[in-house]
Amino acid sequence: MRVVSIVGARPQFVKLAPVSRAMSASLELGGPAIEDFIVHTGQHYDPGLSDIFFSELEIPEPGIDLEIGSGSHGTQTARMLEGIERVLLDRQPDIVVVYGDTNSTLAGALAASKLNIPIAHVEAGLRSFDRNMPEEVNRIVSDHVSSILFAPTATAMENLEQENLADRSVLVGDVMLDAIRFNSKLSRDRSDILRTLDLVGLDFGIATLHRAANTDSGRLLTLLESLNEIAKRHLPIIFPVHPRTVSRIKSECPDWTPEASLQLIDPVGYLDMISLLEAASVVLTDSGGLQKEAFFLDTACITLRNETEWPETVQGGGNVLVGADRSKIRRAVDELMGRSEDKQKSVAFGAEQYFGDGNSAQKIVTEITKAVLQ
Questions:
Q1: 40, 210, 234, 242: which is the annotated catalytic residue?
Q2: 210 an active-site residue?
C-alpha cells in the first residue's frame, strides 16, 4: 500500500510522528506493508523549526524536500501545489495524508483532489469561526475535498456534521495526545534545556508569538509590553522568538526593550519545548498546538487570541482567552499566580474526556487501510 504524507511546518511534524510509527508497525501487527513517502514542502525551512524535528521525534527523513520557503499565501501555496502534483504523478499513491491547517495542508489536498487521489485529513473539523485567519480557510477547504476526515474531538465531529460531512468523518481522538505521551518521556531523557537556562527548581513562564494577527498589526507592541509587565511583576518569562516575529519586532517596535526577566532566546527543539512546558507555571501563547500541549501537561495557558480551535481546553479549566487586551492578560495572570501551587498545576482535568485514549494513530492507520483495500 502506497501512502504519501504531506507536511511542512512544526505542528505537522509532531502529528506525523505517531502516525508514521503506526504505519511502520502495520505489517508486524497483521496489516499490510505500508510504504509512506513523506513530502516536506519546506514551509518551515529554518533548521531550528524543521530539520531538528525529524531527528528528535524519530521520523523517517522526507523522501523529498520541495524547499518552497516563504512568500505570500498565494505564491507559497501555488508553488507547493505545483511541486506536490509532480510528486503525486510520479509516486501514484493509493492515498494522500494531510495534517492540520497550513498552506501545506491546503496545497496537498488540492493537488490530490485534482488528480482524483483519495485524501485523508488528520485533525479535521476544527473551526475558530474566524475566516480572517488563513488557517480557517485552509481547514475548511481541506475538509470539503477530503475523502476521510479524522476528527480529534466530539466538537470537531459536530462541526463536520453541521457541514454535511458526517458520512466521511471518523472520531479517532487526537494524535497530539499520542505524541505528547511518547515525547514527554523522550524529553526527560534527552533535553538539558532547564539546566542550560538555569531554570531547575525555579518558577517561570513561557511565551510564544507568531500569528500574523498578532505580529503584523498594532497588537504586537501591546503584547510585548504585557510580557514585560508580567516578567517584572510576577515571574521570569522565557520567550523563544519565531524568526518572523524577530523581524516584525525590529520593523514595528524598534524602540521596545525587554525587561531583564523577559529572556528572548532562539527557537528551541521540540523536546526542549516540551521540557520547558512541563516545568513552567504558565504559558502565554497564540499557538493552537501549545494550548493543547499545555493542557495535556497540566500547565496553565493564557491564549493571546480571541478564539480557539480547542474549546475543550477552556471547558476543562486549563485555558483562558484574553486576546491582546492588557487588562485581561493582567487579570488572568493575577488569578493564576494567586492559586495554590497544587491547584495551579492541576488546571486541566481528564484529557481523555475530550481528546481520546492516546491510541489515535493506530485508529487512523486502521481506517486508512480499510479505505484503500475495501
A1: 210
A2: yes
